[in-house]
Amino acid sequence: MSRLSGISVIFDLDGTLVDSEPNYYEAGRQTLAEHGVPDFTWTDHERYVGISTQETVTRWKSLYGLRASVPELLADKNRRYLELAGTATRAYPEMRKFVELLAGEGVPMAVASGSSPEAIAAILAVTGLDVYLRTTVSADEVAHGKPAPDVFLEAARRLGADPADCVVLEDAAPGAAAAHAAGMRCIAIPYVAAQAHAPEFTRAGLLLRGGQEEFTARAAHDWLVRNRS
């Protein structure tokens, strides 16, 4: 029997499994430029890391007084993002190793993301992770995006897992808050270094303040084995 029997693992996608934030930034920068906001910076973008695309463009409409509707902005940003994502998205090497390790032990896995279903599918396909990660949930499919627990609870439901038996991997404070609200343990790998001390991360079972540079597949696996119950 696997040393990890009884555990299910749910991955956030962007900034956790794959380094997609540069593509999200570029898609957002292009979208806003087209709608009359020419100076959207990476620092501006960092405020939206970890929340859904829908919530992001809703905030933009209000903040910048955009004339376009939220559905128009969402479609525009998603279209631009998909064009970028399909050609240039990199899976973090240690995350790929971790997914392969878990797959080898038969651990049920899912992806729960604020991205659209199309973006999730495109990224998993282009990185080859779709071989292992067949259960996916988009924030578009539930009532509320992160920090609400909806995407994680739906992922657990689709896996047939008790939330208490699920461990979430997250890079953003809203996702860590969502995992806690879902009653799940969390391995936190902060993407934005300045957020590493955010209160949402303090409840993580394992917090790697150094982000992806500090994450190793073996250490995460060993932590799961030690913290099965």
UniProtKB/TrEMBL annotation:
Pfam families: Hydrolase (PF00702). The lineage of its organism: Bacteria, Bacillati, Actinomycetota, Actinomycetes, Kitasatosporales. SUPFAM superfamilies: HAD-like. This is HAD family phosphatase. CDD domains: HAD_BPGM-like. It comes from Streptomyces doebereineriae.
